[in-house]
Amino acid sequence: MTHATPTPDRASLLAGITQADLAATVLRVTMGVLFLAHAWMKIVLFTPAGTVAFFESLGLPGFLAWVVIAAEGLGGIALILGLWSRWVSLALLPILLGAIYPHWDAGFFFSNPGGGWEFPAFWSVALVVQAILGNGAFALGRERG
């Protein structure tokens, strides 16, 4: 009797991966892409000088704009790759909590004129969830759950 060598199928590729691992991966990669998009926006659309001027208009030191751009870019890459997701999420949390400040007077809903603080607050919660979940599946780094 001959036995065919089994070909990897979707079920075997996902064997041992939990739904929580998959959920952590989707959240991690999505947030990573969005952080990269925000860094790109600050560099290409707003320009670094414009971003510095915006930070200064809020009464914040201008150099913080550079810190935020770097954190969003590097943090986004780390999240996409699944490197230190817990620590990266916690490191990005103050940026999102800080993003609530310029939107506070516009109210809760982001559809309000001036954009409310709804999205930065939700992102903050998503970062906490990512920090709890860790890297998830398909990550370059390994974290204990």
Descriptive notes:
- The protein has helices at residues 10-13, 19-45, 48-57, 63-81, 85-100, 118-133.
- The longest helix is centred in the N-terminal third of the chain and has 27 residues, at 19-45.
- The model has no long low-confidence stretch (mean pLDDT 90).
- The protein has 145 residues and is mostly helical.
- The protein has one domain (18-133).
- Helix 2 packs across helix 6 (118-133).
- The protein contains 6 helices and no strands.
Total of helices: 6
Spans of at least 5 consecutive residues whose pLDDT stays below 50 are none
Question: Whole-Å distance between the termini?
Answer: 44 Å
Q: How many strands appear in the DSSP assignment? A: 0
Order of helices and strands: HHHHHH
- What does the radius of gyration come to? 19 Å
**Mind describing the biggest β-sheet?**
none
Structural class call reads: mainly alpha
Please state the overall shape, judged from the principal axes of the Cα atoms: globular
β-strand percent reads under 5%
Mean pLDDT: 90
Characteristics of this structure?
about 140 residues, single chain, mainly alpha, globular, about 65% helix
Write the topology of this structure.
Elements: H1 10-13, H2 19-45, H3 48-57, H4 63-81, H5 85-100, H6 118-133
Helix pairs in contact: 2-4, 2-6, 3-4, 4-5, 5-6
